[in-house]
Amino acid sequence: MNVSAPPPVAYFDHAATTLIYPEVVDAMVAQLSRLGNASSLHGSGRAARRVTEESRETVAAVLNARPSEVVFTSGGTESDNLAVKGFYWARRSADPRRTRILSTAIEHHAVLDPLDWLASDSGAEVELLPVDSNGRLDIDALRTAVDRDPDSVALITVMWANNEVGTLQPVDEVVSVAARHGIPVHTDAVQAMGQVPLDFAASGVDALTVTGHKIGGPFGVGALLLRREVELVALLHGGGQERDVRSGTIDAPAIVGFACAAEVAVKGQPQRAPALAALRDELVDGILDVIPDAQLNGAPGAGRLPGNAHLSFPGCEGDSLLMLLDAQGIECSTGSACSAGVPQASHVLLAMGKGESLARGSLRFSLGHTTTRADVVRVVAAIGPAVQRARAAGATSAQGNRA
Amino acid sequence: MKVLAAMSGGVDSAVAAARAHQAGHDVTGIHLALSRNPKSYRSGARGCCTIEDSNDARRAADMIGIPFYVWDLSERFHQDVVEDFMSEYSEGRTPNPCVRCNEKIKFAAVLDRAVALGFDAVVTGHYAQLETGTDGMVEMHRAVDHGKDQSYVLGVLTQDQLARSMFPLGDSTKDVVRAEAAGRGLFVAQKPDSHDICFIADGDTAGWLRDRLGAGSGAIVDTSGEVLGRHEGTFGFTIGQRRGLRIGKPASDGKPRYVLDIEPVSGRVTVGSREDLAVDELVGIRPRWCGTTPATELDCTVQLRAHGDGHRAVARVIGDEVRIELIDPASGVAPGQAAVIYAGTRVVGSATIATTRRRTPV
């Protein structure tokens, strides 16, 4: 049985999750039937520990980190929470003046919500710095915010690439601003891994979030890359696993799968990225041909993830478009959704200065390792009639609102 | 047909969607998000607008095997239903927000959008029956289950709306629907029915209105104008109400007293006997006809509130108004409610009650 058969749909939601690689499934299945807790001292325990450490070395190698800098977690949300809360608590406890956290208005909710919580619960002063119309951090605004009172900054957290519009952030400049004052930097690189080159050591960041299921690995496993000398306050206390920063029984099968995917995704990146970018450009050009007033959001060309196309369709509700495309087996995303599944106007697009109605009329097409030219052709063929229908539906709402 | 099933998360709309699917229609399920803050709406079994209800609707759609989406109608709902509810009460009327929601949201905003997106009809779990008459017009009739009949709250639908509606439950009793839900493995089978107003989280309508419209305290007087007591807000009252008047002084005849009239500006609430409540004529405005407008006077039955009795009546259309003479007098008729006009089991149309004429003038 081939569990990794390509989906019978044109799948353009790789930024949400992507298909697991067959070799990952094989590696995980093999490990699932092996006995042993990696913390046990006997032979079975040592065997589980060995594959865990080999996996740690693999992840470290492909991201240019030291093995001891890889802290395995349950995924992106946990890694972001650990970094944001753990840095804040540790830095403030070392110096109570450090109450400010600087971030951007376009972070993922796995960063924004912990920041909100720290503000309301732990006295943090959170400053979400603006982005330009392409969704790129205004580095001068960051510099000004730091210079105002560098000693009060506990942490700077800026994502590597935005999950909605795909814009790459000036993380190297963030690091140089922070380094002058010894302020730690965290970056959420969940969307970047496997799409653009990532070099932990060269980046200069102190902590970096990655996750398995965005790179062809399993759900429920990821890592926080954390510089050796950094101390964080843990979120999970218990058996002291993972440098005592992340207690919990080592999930060897998941970690094996994550490491396998990391290797495949990162080693294949130099070939895959230009191919994806070419398909992405074909998709965008094709859509703009059919819908000339559609607008591409985010940075152009090399300033964005190769697999990301994010477009606004004036006069349409994004969720109408999504439904019409879904009915034809074309799967994409409207951006962020709340827990009830109600499409909210994206905070990213609003931060980029887009109006609420344009923000609600947007779709993200994210390409990945299964995307084919035939998929792109399907979207280009379907988008015209779908937009026409969605505009008619949007017009009924507009009439109702006037009445 | 390609149909859109509005799924509240309750048992009725789930079975309605399942029946439409089984009948061979191409069904897509949607849940209407009506609250701007879902946490503020009624939770669980009692309402229709919470995250839990949205999840229940999603699980029902999964089990039926149809696609499912959430549509955000919260802005429209707030404008057309919640604000209307407040303004009606502030003018001393007693609106029915479910009627308004059907008129403005489910069979208007949702239906229009559905049609534009390529759907032929909207399916709901309302208990009412649709039949195509010999003239090709769609007729709406009361449900087989008279206890559950919801034709009253659908009485505002026009022929165009009825022609694009499906009510698959109209021929069944609630017991049958629950049993069918259980048989289909829909776990919402035993979920209690929703009651009350979905956007008032704790069921305290008077308190909800007081928070938004101010107290409006005033005097409670009898029909002669004698002050019998005071009250903390007109919103606690509806015409025909007997309980909760808290008048210290008993009536001279020893009989219970009922709210006869509410004046929101002065805050004056007039009470009187049950006989004083009897209404024998009313005027309805904003009539909506399910088919053609009745040309002359119509011998009919009129229902004046949800789950109320039918009253024999004669209705006359005069310009933009409907004058309804009640052969069986009604008591406790509240302006703002819908008067729904039936010919036998068939809904002819409806109008919003504007004024009533008492047998005994107040």
What does this structure look like?
By secondary structure, chain A is an alpha/beta fold. Chain A folds into 2 domains: 22-264, 3-Layer(aba) Sandwich (Aspartate Aminotransferase, domain 2), CATH 3.40.640; 269-398, Aspartate Aminotransferase, domain 1 (Alpha-Beta Complex), CATH 3.90.1150. Chain A is built from 12 helices and 12 strands. In chain A, helix 1 runs antiparallel to helix 8 and helix 5 runs parallel beside helix 6 (171-179). The longest helix of chain A has 39 residues, at 252-290. With 362 residues, chain B is an alpha/beta fold. In chain B, 25% of the residues lie in helices and 30% in strands. In chain B, the strands form 4 sheets. Chain B has a 6-stranded antiparallel β-barrel with strand order 12-15-14-13-16-17. In chain B, helix 1 (11-22) runs parallel beside helix 2 (51-64), helix 1 (11-22) crosses helix 6 and helix 3 (74-90) runs antiparallel to helix 4. The longest helix of chain B is centred in the first third of the chain and has 20 residues, at 97-116. In chain B, 49% of the residues are buried. Classes of the chains: A alpha/beta (403), B alpha/beta (362). The A-B interface holds A 319-320, 322-324, 326-327, 339-343, 389-390, 392-393, 395-397, 399-401 and B 28, 31, 33, 38, 50-51, 54, 58, 67, 69-72, 74-76, 79-80, 104, 108-109, 112-113, 115-118.
Short descriptors:
heterodimer, A: 403 residues, alpha/beta, Aspartate Aminotransferase, domain 2, Aspartate Aminotransferase, domain 1, 7-stranded mixed β-sheet, 12 strands, B: 362 residues, Rossmann fold, SH3 type barrels, Elongation Factor Tu (Ef-tu), domain 3, 3 domains, 6-stranded antiparallel β-barrel, 5-stranded parallel β-sheet, 8 helices, 17 strands, 25% helix, 30% strand
